[in-house]
Amino acid sequence: MATAMFIYAMFMRLVPPTLQARVRRYTNKFTSLVYPYIRITFHEFTGERLMKSEAYTAIQTYLSEHSSQSATRLKAEVIKVKDTHTPLVLSMDDNEEIIEEFQGVKLWWGSYKITPKTQSFSVYPSSDEKRYYKLTFHKRYRSLITECYLKHVLEEAKAIEMKNRQLKLYTNSKTRWSHVVFEHPATFETLAMRPKEKEGIINDLVKFKSGKSYYTKIGKAWKRGYLLYGPPGTGKSTMIAAMANFMNYDVYDLELTAVVDNSDLRKLLINTSSKSIIVIEDIDCSLDLTGQRKKKKERVEGKEGKSASLKRGDEDDEDKGSKVTLSGLLNVIDGIWSACGGERIMVFTTNFVEKLDPALIRRGRMDKHIKLSYCCYEAFKVLAKNYLDVESHHLFPRIEKLLEETKITPADVAETLMPKSEDEEVDTSLHSLIQFLEMTEIKKSNLQQSKDIKHGEVVMEENGVIN
């Protein structure tokens, strides 16, 4: 060994680099004849700009799920993973090797790190340490590994990433998105709705999620629109959160008033990812999209009668606001730009559906219209289970009768049922709800009586009875 090392040192010192390269090339050819294994290396950074390799990241995710069972040296990272009781994620330590089998074929995965001898300054982090994974397998299984196994690793890594990723809530500023962690706890189990309506929405979402080939076959972009409408406090925002948690999708809360024009709106759409829900809440209040066709005509007619100074002032006012038009929004929802990316859900919410332009909410743009109305008895039972942990009570029949006669939102019911102290009992909360329902019914009757009296006075005045 000492002799071999001495010869190698003399070879590296005395032989010119060009001759060294030629000797290595022929040595590798000779070695490949007698060495029956193939090695594939996946470096952490690739390309001229040393960007993070997607293949390396995918392999790291795949091995972190499988290596903890067989590796003897592991490194742990603390991350917040959704729906798990083990916040520690284990992965292979440097210079560690594991053995895996795929369809009866044995493979070796190794994690390695190279530290340069000379330290040099660089803006890229890989200049200090170079990490890579090495896959080793017998040459007779070359086609199986390159065509099937590596594809399996990438698909499995994508599934693991989707399962463990944190959901994000995005908001827009001009043409950029910023995000926070989405931690809304709403689920369909805690959503106050009729069971049949809830089941219909869940089935629709499941069908959409598995419908990539179907949408390709019919020639439509892989997207779906939902219109949520109803009085304030009926659970429209909670429905969106439940949809995001059920589908494991990110949420993009699009604020139209912060978008300058249609071009910026398209840029925002391009920057959204797949597997996401794009939300425009209270679309009837975001921008006056309902009357822009008529207003455009009125502006043209009005400009003829205005002075130059007034024109300049009006133009300055218009420049300050958003110039997003109904046409631009429709193109984003259902036009050519809507096909940029796949597996997206578009959700509009409104309290007054009659104010929206029919072209905005027609079928094909907003595929499913969901009306969220006042609290019914089935929704009340869900809220009672959530807030009081009771499924039946002797006061339920009385509450059911009052709910049939009184219009009250699930938000009001939930606030009334919520215990105000730790000592408050179930009977107290239910009696508070009954009292609230009765008071609401009395107020409604008094309001209706006052309206009838005013209407009668108007009729009498029109008939000349009252001067």
Automatic annotation (TrEMBL):
It comes from the Eukaryota. GO terms for molecular function: ATP binding; ATP hydrolysis activity. It holds the Pfam family AAA_lid_At3g28540. It catalyses: ATP + H2O = ADP + phosphate + H(+). Transmembrane segments: none annotated. InterPro entries: AAA+_ATPase (IPR003593), AAA_N_dom (IPR025753), At3g28540-like_C (IPR058017), ATPase_AAA_core (IPR003959), ATPase_AAA_CS (IPR003960), Mitochondrial_chaperone_BCS1 (IPR050747), P-loop_NTPase (IPR027417). Residues 296-321 are annotated as: Disordered. Residues 222-376 form the AAA+ ATPase domain. Residues 298-314 have a biased composition (Basic and acidic residues). GO terms for biological process: response to stress. Its cofactor is Mg(2+). Gene3D superfamilies: 6.10.280.40, P-loop containing nucleotide triphosphate hydrolases. Keywords: ATP-binding, Hydrolase, Magnesium, Nucleotide-binding, Signal. Residues 1-20 form the signal peptide. Belongs to the AAA ATPase family. BCS1 subfamily. This is AAA+ ATPase domain-containing protein. It comes from Sphenostylis stenocarpa.
